[in-house]
User: Which sequence fits this backbone?
């Protein structure tokens, strides 16, 4: 009887270990997040920037593959931040370099000081009226934390972007992406769009 109990216990342990292993394997490359309703969901980590889909500020679903072949400056933006005037500089460099293949992409995020509290419509109106923004803007997302959007998971993860990994530190962090979808530079909030370091990196990428 004791041998039977021991055998049963061992069998149970093997089954539990097997299930745990399967769950661990299935969880690799995935991230558990909370959606807008507070429900959890699992999303596979993107292996390429161009795999990622996101809604633009008009509510249209956009796959970033649409921008393949362009040099991208990806910026997490906010309307009530001390760095908000950088919208002016972003618009200037967009106008200066767009014919050569630069696209500035603005991603509103409310992660830092609650400085992007508005709706997409309010954000769009603010950017147009205050700064005459004409570069693409997108729906609000989370740039860090447990509900981080796959775009920023990709940009800040050591697995997908080892050279420039690390949490977004504040509004108006900037990632420069080459024509093949590779991150080639990262700039802090303090690096203004028209600064020498940013413009030199853009010009080099556009060659």
Assistant:
């Amino acid at each position: 009887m004791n041998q039977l109990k021991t055998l049963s216990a061992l069998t149970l342990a093997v089954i539990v270990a097997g299930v745990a292993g399967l769950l661990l394997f299935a969880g690799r490359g995935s991230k558990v997040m909370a959606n807008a309703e507070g429900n959890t969901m699992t999303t596979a980590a993107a292996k390429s920037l161009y795999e990622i889909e996101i809604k633009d500020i008009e509510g249209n679903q956009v796959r970033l593959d649409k921008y393949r072949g362009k040099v991208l400056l990806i910026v997490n933006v906010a309307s009530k931040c001390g760095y908000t005037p950088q919208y002016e500089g972003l618009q200037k460099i967009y106008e200066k370099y767009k014919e050569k293949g630069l696209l500035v992409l603005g991603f509103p995020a409310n992660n830092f000081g609650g400085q992007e509290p508005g709706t997409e419509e309010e954000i769009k109106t603010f950017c147009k009226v205050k700064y005459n923004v004409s570069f693409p803007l997108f729906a609000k997302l989370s740039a860090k934390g447990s509900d981080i959007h796959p775009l920023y998971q990709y940009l800040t993860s050591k697995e997908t972007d080892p050279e420039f990994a690390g949490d977004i530190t504040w509004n108006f962090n900037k990632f420069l992406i080459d024509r093949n979808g590779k991150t080639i530079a990262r700039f802090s909030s303090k690096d203004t769009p028209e600064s020498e370091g940013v413009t030199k990196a853009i010009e080099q990428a556009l060659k």
